[in-house]
Specification:
Low-confidence stretches: none
Helix content: 40-55%
CATH superfamily of one domain: Winged helix-like DNA-binding domain superfamily/Winged helix DNA-binding domain
CATH topology of one domain: Arc Repressor Mutant, subunit A
CATH class of one domain: Mainly Alpha
Radius of gyration: 18 Å
Largest sheet: 2 strands, antiparallel
Structural class: mainly alpha
Mean pLDDT: 86
Distance between the termini: 35 Å
Order of helices and strands: HHHEEHHHH
């Protein structure tokens, strides 16, 4: 199972914002985030919009504006972020919420219950992993080191 590039970037962005959420000025602009995380600005813009619509981030407009985590990092799961960007994903189409019909359903019907169990376990794992569990100080050091070596 592979998540999209957008979800990958969203996880990195939320993780980074978690490293600065306890600072006095925790707002980070799209330009700053793009530069700091080495992400394409326009693509990041779409990701930030989705994360804001999902209430994972809050945006503040204006010259001193930017983005910050709406909730504490301990309250945001990997599943929250992935679903905010990619929507709810199923390992196989026939167990997805929007599945309609397949001409192989009669062949696969004995496999589907097991795939549902696998799906539940993946969902549970992603839902149990919170951004506050990350080593945020190490992540911040790694990002700063990367930024310094790229400059």
């Amino acid at each position: 199972m592979t998540i999209s590039k957008a979800a990958d970037y969203a996880i990195l962005t939320v993780a980074y914002l978690a490293t600065v959420s306890r600072e006095s000025n925790n707002l980070r602009s799209k330009v700053y985030l793009s530069s700091r995380l080495n992400l394409p600005k326009e693509f990041l813009s779409l990701i930030l919009q989705k994360l804001t619509r999902s209430k994972i981030l809050t945006s503040k407009r204006g010259v001193t504006g930017g983005y910050f985590l709406t909730k504490d990092a301990d309250e945001i799961t990997f599943k929250d972020v992935i679903e905010a960007v990619d929507g709810k994903k199923a390992l196989v189409e026939c167990i997805s919420d929007d599945f309609e019909h397949c001409n192989r359903l009669h062949i696969c019907k004995s496999i589907i219950p097991k795939m549902k169990i696998v799906q539940e376990r993946v969902d549970d794992a992603l839902d149990s992993m919170h951004f506050g569990e990350l080593d945020l100080s190490q992540l911040s050091k790694d990002i700063n080191k990367t930024k310094t070596s790229n400059s």
